[in-house]
Every structure is written in structure tokens, then in C-alpha cells.
Amino acid sequence: MEPVILFFQNYGVVGLFVVSFIESFISPILPDLLLIPMALSAPEQAIYYSVIATTASVLGGIIGYFIGNRLGLPVLQKYAPAKHIDTIHNWLEKYGGWAIFFAAMAPIPYKFVSISAGVFRVNMVVFLLASAIGRGKRFLLEGILIFYYGPQAVELIKRYSNNFIIGFIAVAVIVGIVIVAMKMRKKPVKGVS
Length: 193
What we know:
mainly alpha; 10 helices; 0% strand
């Protein structure tokens, strides 16, 4: 995989755009593998590179969405183990945009997210908004940290990204439970006046 990464690094921003774009529907190469070294080599450009990665990733996600939407479950079965497909479906059905948002931030290939959203026909606007915010949060966080902290940012990213994601998911689940509980309390009971 390293020769492929070096190949795309030779093309700079165009290589970053291509890798970020195709990772959203077919490639196993995570954009971070280009984004971080490029940002470290020119920290003053780190945020710009992050915006390129985010934009390309979301645009590629549209392709992944349409692949999933057109080809359906068989294409998802090629990418995701069968035991996880029901879980993915349940998460998308239950949490919709939140599931996309958290998955878009996670260090998993984004193609799983985009294709799954298409297969299970998540609302396109919800998909795009959640993807843009989730991918932006992931890549922009890296870019901003490198812009301000340079090489020390790599250690911060490694140390805090997983803990941050886990903590953020836990908070979101708690908020979701509270919102559902409040909505259930406000529903009038039939037959009671």
C-alpha cells in the first residue's frame, strides 16, 4: 500500500483530492495517510488540505450513496460482513443522521457509510449534512491541530481522537435517550382528559 500512497503524494493536492474522493466508495486507502504528512510538511496549509479532503470525501460519498442505492444489498455484502449488516441497518434506521455523523468521523473506510446509506435509502439531504459535518470534523480537527501545533499534533491526534469519538458518542446517546424520554412524557394518554 505504501507505493500507492507515495504515488498519490507526488501529485500533492490533486492526489489528496483523488484519494479522499475514491476512498468514499471503493478504495481502502484512508485520506489521513496523505493528509497528515502533507499538512506536517506545510503546516500553514494544513487547514486548506483538510478542506480539500473533506470536500472530496463528501463528493465521493455521493457516488457511494448512488452505488448502494442502485445495486442494493448485494454490493454492501461485498464490503461488510453479513453479521454486521443488520446492525448497520438498525443504526441507520434508529439514529439516521447521527449514525452517519459518527461513522463519518470514525477511522473506518467511509465507503461503508456511503454505500450503506444508499442501500438503506437514508434521506439524501440528511446524508449530505451528516457526512459534511462528520468528515469535516475529522479532517479539520487534524488540520487545525497541525496548523497550530505542528509535529506535536500527531501525538495529540493519536492520543485523543479515539477517546474523543467514544466520549462524543456516549454523550450523544445520553442526549438521544433524554430527548426520547421527554417526548414520551409529553404524549397525552388516550382516554384521559
